[in-house]
Every structure is written in structure tokens, then in C-alpha cells.
């Protein structure tokens, strides 16, 4: 599952380095710069200094001329915009939108505009959603790297976080697609046993989704939960005979 951070028309080299540092802290390394002010921004002293050791993110980063070139391999775009645009995509806070998006298994790109002008309407209109970070109503100006850090943190949480350090040889975590499949299995089982009314589901499944995200399930645990769901459906089927 691709996670990409795209900086559009960045004007300050230091922000590129700080963005790389923010990404590394959250375990991401796919950075693309669209038409930055400096052609050599990835090698400038200020960039490297502000990266504070996240040089592998800078080494892997790409510079492209257009947003189209930056989108290869991703299918869902999130704008980061302070205010909604007329006729634009729906606007959500990160915590409203990202948990469900994490379960979709899609390649996701988070787009950040220039420090001076933000994102253009044209770029925002191309996105599936706009992510707006809640800030004080009288002062909502966030530094580019600080905004990226917040979004990267919320996205990492939505993906399940890092959790406590595992013992050597500990089981890997199940991926988002496996969790989504298990949730779909549970949804059907809960309908079968009469616990979930599909005509009035309320927020049961989103809450279960968040619960399982917090649990940081392993593939073996996914298998167990699917077994429970299967048994529930079979028991319900027997009762209906």
C-alpha cells in the first residue's frame, strides 16, 4: 500500500528537510516534490541540516515538473487545505477520515501546497477529499513541515501505529486489507445473529473498525476472528432451520 507525500511548488529548502525528518519519524519515505523553487533543493545545505539524519528520505525523493508525474501508483488523493472550496471535495479532519481510508488498501497521496500560496483550486479539485487540521480559530497558520508531521502522525495511527516494541521474532501485524476483509466477515455474521440491523447500522462497524485498529492484530488473530464470525453465521443458520 503506497503512502506518498507530495510538496507542490515548495519555496524554502529548510521545509523540505524538515518534511523528510517528519516522514522518517512516522516510518514513511516516499517524498515527491513538484516544481520546487530550487532544482538542487534535495542537496542544499539547509535541506540536509533540517533533515537531521533523514537523508535516506532525501536520497529516495524525486523532483517532477507536474502533479500528474507525481501520482504514479496512487489512486486516492488527499488535499491539505485550511478552508473548503466551492464545488471541491468534502473536507474532513484527519481523525474523521483517515481510519476508514486506511482500511481501503488504496495507494494514498497527501498533497501540500506552497508556503506562500497554499494549494491552488485546480489541485484541490483533483482530490477525493480535503484534510483540514483543527486549529485555533484566530490563528490557523501552520508551518509546512509541522502540517505534514501532524498528517503523517494521524495516518500512522490510522494504519495501526507502531505499538510497543516487539520481542525478537514477534509476529508481524496484519495489513489493512486483511483487517478490512475480517471486518466485512464480522459485519455479515453480526447481521446473521441479529445483532446488527443493516437498515439501521448506526456507527457499530466504524467503532469496531477503530477497536480492531487499536488492537494491532496479527495475521493469526485475524484468522481466529474470522473463525468466530464463521461459527456465528453457522449457529444462526442452524437456529433458522
TrEMBL record:
Signal peptide: none
Primary residence: cytoplasm
tRNA/rRNA methyltransferase SpoU type domain boundaries: 4-153
Gene Ontology MF term list: RNA binding; tRNA (cytidine(32)-2'-O)-methyltransferase activity; tRNA (cytidine(32)/uridine(32)-2'-O)-methyltransferase activity
Keyword annotations from UniProtKB, A to Z: Cytoplasm, Methyltransferase, S-adenosyl-L-methionine, Transferase, tRNA processing
Reaction(s) catalysed by this chain's protein: cytidine(32) in tRNA + S-adenosyl-L-methionine = 2'-O-methylcytidine(32) in tRNA + S-adenosyl-L-homocysteine + H(+); uridine(32) in tRNA + S-adenosyl-L-methionine = 2'-O-methyluridine(32) in tRNA + S-adenosyl-L-homocysteine + H(+)
Alphabetical list of InterPro entries matching this protein: Alpha/beta_knot_MTases, RNA_MeTrfase_TrmJ/LasT, SpoU_MeTrfase, tRNA_m1G_MTases_N
GO BP, one annotated term: tRNA nucleoside ribose methylation
The EC number(s) this enzyme carries: 2.1.1.200
Main EC class the enzyme belongs to: transferase
Regions annotated as coiled coil: none
This protein's record includes keyword Transferase: yes
Pfam families in UniProt: SpoU_methylase (PF00588)
Subcellular location: Cytoplasm
Keyword tRNA processing carried by entry: yes
Domain of life from the UniProt record: Bacteria
UniProt subunit comment: Homodimer.
Chain's role: Catalyzes the formation of 2'O-methylated cytidine (Cm32) or 2'O-methylated uridine (Um32) at position 32 in tRNA.
Family: Belongs to the class IV-like SAM-binding methyltransferase superfamily. RNA methyltransferase TrmH family.
Protein name per the record: tRNA (cytidine/uridine-2'-O-)-methyltransferase TrmJ
Lineage of source species: Bacteria, Pseudomonadati, Pseudomonadota, Betaproteobacteria, Burkholderiales
Gene field: trmJ
Amino acid at each position: 500500500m503506497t503512502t506518498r507525500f507530495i510538496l507542490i511548488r515548495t519555496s524554502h529548502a529548510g521545509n523540505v528537510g524538515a518534511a523528510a525528518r517528519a516522514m522518517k519519524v512516522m516510518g514513511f519515505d516516499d517524498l515527491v516534490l513538484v516544481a520546487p523553487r530550487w532544482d538542487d533543493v534535495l542537496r542544499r545545505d539547509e535541506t540536509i541540516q533540517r533533515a537531521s539524519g533523514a537523508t535516506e528520505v532525501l536520497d529516495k525523493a524525486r523532483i517532477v515538473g507536474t502533479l500528474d508525474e507525481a501520482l504514479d501508483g496512487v489512486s486516492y488523493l488527499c488535499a491539505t487545505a485550511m478552508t473548503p472550496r466551492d464545488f471541491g471535495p468534502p473536507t474532513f479532519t484527519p481523525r474523521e477520515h483517515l481510519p476508514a481510508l486506511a482500511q481501503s488498501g488504496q495507494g494514498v497521496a497527501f498533497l501540500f501546497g506552497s508556503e506562500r500560496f497554499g494549494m491552488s483550486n485546480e489541485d484541490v479539485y483533483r482530490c477525493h477529499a480535503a484534510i483540514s487540521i483543527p486549529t485555533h480559530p484566530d490563528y490557523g497558520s501552520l508551518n509546512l513541515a509541522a502540517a505534514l508531521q501532524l498528517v503523517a502522525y494521524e495516518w500512522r495511527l490510522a494504519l495501526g501505529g507502531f505499538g510497543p516494541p516487539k520481542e525478537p521474532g514477534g509476529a508481524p501485524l496484519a495489513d489493512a486489507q486483511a483487517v478490512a476483509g475480517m471486518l466485512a466477515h464480522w459485519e455479515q455474521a453480526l447481521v446473521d445473529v441479529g445483532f446488527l440491523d443493516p437498515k439501521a447500522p448506526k456507527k457499530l462497524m466504524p467503532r469496531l473498525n477503530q477497536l480492531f485498529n487499536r488492537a494491532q492484530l496479527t495475521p493469526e488473530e485475524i484468522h481466529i476472528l474470522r473463525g468466530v464470525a464463521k461459527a456465528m453465521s453457522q449457529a444462526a443458520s442452524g437456529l433458522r432451520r
